[in-house]
Here is the input.
Amino acid sequence: MKPPELLNVNLAVTDLGAAVTMYPLAAASAWSHHWLGGDATCLYYGLAGFFFGVASIMNLTILAIVRFVVSINMTSPNEKISLKTVKMLCMWTWLYALIWALFPILGWGWYGPEPFGLSCSLAWGQMKHEGFSMVVSMFSFNLIMPCVIIICCYFGIAIKLYWAYKKSMNSNRVPKIVKLQRRLLMIAVLVSLGFIVCWAPYGIVSIWSLFSDSRTIPPQVSLLPCMFAKSSTAYNPLIYYIFSPGFKREVKQLRWFCLSSNPCHVSNNINDNKMYMVSADVTSRVQALSILQEIEE
Here is the structure.
């Protein structure tokens, strides 16, 4: 695993952490038609949601910066970012998210129930005066600034790939590194766009509750942005499954995904990878192996 790919693992941890620590409690409360556990679980749920949400958006921001740095010189065989640096960035992401999640507990803002009563988050409607600075800071440093950085980085990568692709047209052959970077760019953009689009309605409703009476928003309306935002954790594996051949192969190798009675196994034998070939008879063994190696890369 290359150092930048560790950020993808870190992003998966944020999605898994949110799903495991938050969703069972919300589902049980919905089943019981009221919030379970009182103020203690409300504080826990709000802290966990804020913590994993900030960790996710900052991880996407760092991932965009790292992708941009790596794409500056795509043809260089040397690693532009070391594994130690990436580990430090991952640790910084969790520390940054923890600090912001603890601010409401320390008195700068506070957590409270959502209007529909089945989950908890920052008490947007109650922070119009005392916690207004916290809300402005939170939206500035954890939504607007990350979005601007992500857009600028991926726009720069797209320009770099455009010129590399245009330069390769003279030789009538697109380098494999350009194809790889183009696929990685597509995956990263979709993951970032999915997170931003999912959380944008929730952010709009939260800002609306600051400048107007939150009771004017029907509970059914406030429920939909919350559910849409929390569903963002399910999109990343789907995006990787659709656009990443390596990820798709790993999923298909899991035993419980096998549809046939034969056990799943990993093999480099050309006969065991016929799904990549049109016909093994019309293609030589050397050519088939080279095609298979290119696909796996």
